[in-house]
Design goal:
Layout: H1 30-42, H2 50-57, H3 61-74, H4 92-105, H5 109-116, H6 122-142, H7 148-157
Helix pairs in contact: 3-6, 4-6
Length: 158
């Protein structure tokens, strides 16, 4: 990845304060949900097949892995860090998975909390970061303006 391609996240006022020492904490067990997800889809003796993965994520596994690698390289949001209370944050796999599942199924944040342990306030941030990073990374290659040939083909299909 070119050093010039480093993504600069948009600075916005956060609605929530995040993990703060002394605040109420729901023990979501991030490590367990990460391990479960890895055993289901990504480890060598996974539970679900690549066909299951494609049906559930609406993409092939190798495309997911490329996307994960690319966003992890350019956007620090997708690197695992310690939260404000000193606990390990969500893994890149968890963040990308949640954002893709929300897009693929228009999933509610409550279902993401139950399944992946990512809170209601973190889910929209993760989705926004992934979408902005995808546009940043792939705009030139995949999000170009249509040319005349593209427009003619679309008109023929209409």
């Amino acid at each position: 990845m070119d050093a010039a391609m480093v993504y600069q996240p948009i600075k916005e006022q956060r609605q929530w304060g995040g993990s703060i020492v002394g605040r109420f904490y729901k023990p979501r067990n991030r490590a367990m949900t990460h391990a479960n997800m890895m055993n289901n889809y990504f480890n060598s003796n996974f539970v679900y097949t690549e066909d299951d993965f494609r049906r559930r994520f609406r993409m092939r596994l190798h495309v997911f892995k490329r996307l994960l690698h690319d966003v992890h390289q350019v956007n620090p949001y997708f690197q695992q860090k310690l939260d404000r209370a000193g606990r390990p944050g969500f893994s890149p796999y968890q963040k990308v998975t949640v954002a893709l599942r929300m897009m693929a199924y228009a999933s509610l944040t409550d279902s993401m909390d139950e399944t992946y342990g990512i809170s209601e306030s973190t889910c929209p941030d993760t989705l926004t970061e992934l979408c902005n990073t995808i546009v940043h990374l792939y705009k030139e290659e995949y999000l170009r303006e249509p040319n005349q040939e593209d427009l003619d083909r679309l008109i023929r299909k209409a």
